[in-house]
Amino acid sequence: MPHLDDGQIAEWIDAADRPHGQTAHDEVADHLRQCTVCRERVEEARAIAQRARAILGAAAPAVTDVPPFDVVLARAGRIPARRTTRPTWRWLAWAATVVIAGGLGWYVRGAELQQSMHQAQAPTSVARIDSAAPLAAAPAEQTGRGAVGGVAPAPTIEGRTTVAPAPARQEAKQARADRPAAAAKVASQEADALVRDTAARGAAAGVVAAPPTVAAPSPSRNAVEPVAAEERAAEWLVITRDAAERVLGGPVATVPGLPVTRYEVLILESVVRVLQVLPSGAQLELLEAAAPKSEPLAAYAGREREQGRTAFRLVAAAQDTVTLDGVRVTVRAAVTPDSLKVLMGKVRR
Amino acid sequence: MPTDWSAVYRSTFPALVRFLYRKVWEADRAQDLAQEVFVRALDHDPDNPRAWLFAVAANLARDEARTAVRRRRHLELIKNEPLTARAPAPDEELEARERLERVQAALAGLGERDREVLLLWDAGLDYDEIAAQTGLARGAIGTTLARARKRLVEAHDALEGNDAALG
Known about the structure:
The complex is a heterodimer of chains A (about 350) and B (about 170).
Chain A: H1 6-14, H2 22-34, H3 36-57, H4 69-75, H5 88-107, H6 110-121, H7 167-174, H8 180-201, H9 226-234, E1 236-239, H10 241-248, E2 260-266, E3 271-277, E4 283-289, H11 294-306, H12 310-314, E5 318-324, E6 327-333, H13 337-344
Antiparallel strand pairs in A: 1-2, 2-3, 3-4, 4-6, 5-6
Helix pairs in contact in A: 1-3, 5-8, 7-11
Chain B: H1 5-24, H2 27-44, H3 49-77, H4 91-108, H5 112-122, H6 127-134, H7 138-166
């Protein structure tokens, strides 16, 4: 038998634990017993293979945690998204926040309380897109102007629609708000979300809106059923752009040129949320819903308000709606209204 | 007999993420794409799940690469506006990044076919599966793989030598 070629040697090495074709395997084995040259080549090839494996191993993701298969099932629409589980330490942190917020809630009453709420719903510090940035050119003197005015009108469009408030639902829910502890828990959720939100925006940019006064929301407003709030938080699921397009049945609206941090879907309601990062480091949020389910998105907006998330979501955030190819897209960002207008003009599908 | 997708998921997901990571070079994106592959698999229920998963993963990664090119073009429009101020990396982080860049460069230096065969081999596919996915004759897999491994090691060692000489 002539010397082994590179292919035979490679196969011999790789098939050592699962021989392919016993006859060929026996022939190679016989040859190797007699041929010193080929034995050396086998050892050399084996060393190269091991080295190649090690090199590729250096380019593996640091941590490959396998998410539960339920996540895939939920994403495929086979089951509803599972409720997220939170580590114990987070519950402890929440409990601590409840105590603090509860104390503040009792302390801050009457007019002071109303003022506190007003501050929580109005921008305390509005992040501004730098005037040098090509995406927006908001004059510095406009910083701090009210930014929450642009709430979308009720959905009355054909095909897809976007966020619209449900104030009646909010008022109905206010009747439930009779427990300070519940309100305090909402405050803790808001504070928790604020921390996440702030981190996401990148503190290094130095343009993140200052945390609003969410520690002590009024027990008479924004109070929610804590369990419902938690379920709500578990409903968003990160998906790929492909999946988002499948949910919407068409292209996803984004602001071209801004990095997309993630695409999310509100499970079972076909609402897609795209999160992008502005040059200032602030977060831009685009919401749109698949046709013909216009109601869920309105419901989403309503629930969000009911559950007190409005306080942290809309503080220092401007919001407006743009119609693209008959599809309405709601855009939110912690920027001045003028900057938002510039951004609205750049949304593309 | 229906495929036990849960079992396939558990056994294949990490290899699939590794495979995708070496194409998109973003851990989160690789995980996301790997999940997307399984979502599609549930819809199609292919006969040969493992080979199918890697074939779809390769396609998704290719699409992703095209999107990344477009994204880079967009980013060039705002390249004078750094998104975040990057703090100087500690030594270990710097080393890890350099190591990763060497592997990226070494892989990029391979021919597309060699790279594909190499990554599929590293993902644990056998010669038959690699041949089915790449369209190569089964008898050519060993030769291709031997060449790819050798070139990867040589390119990587050369880059390492350069870095050491500079460093």
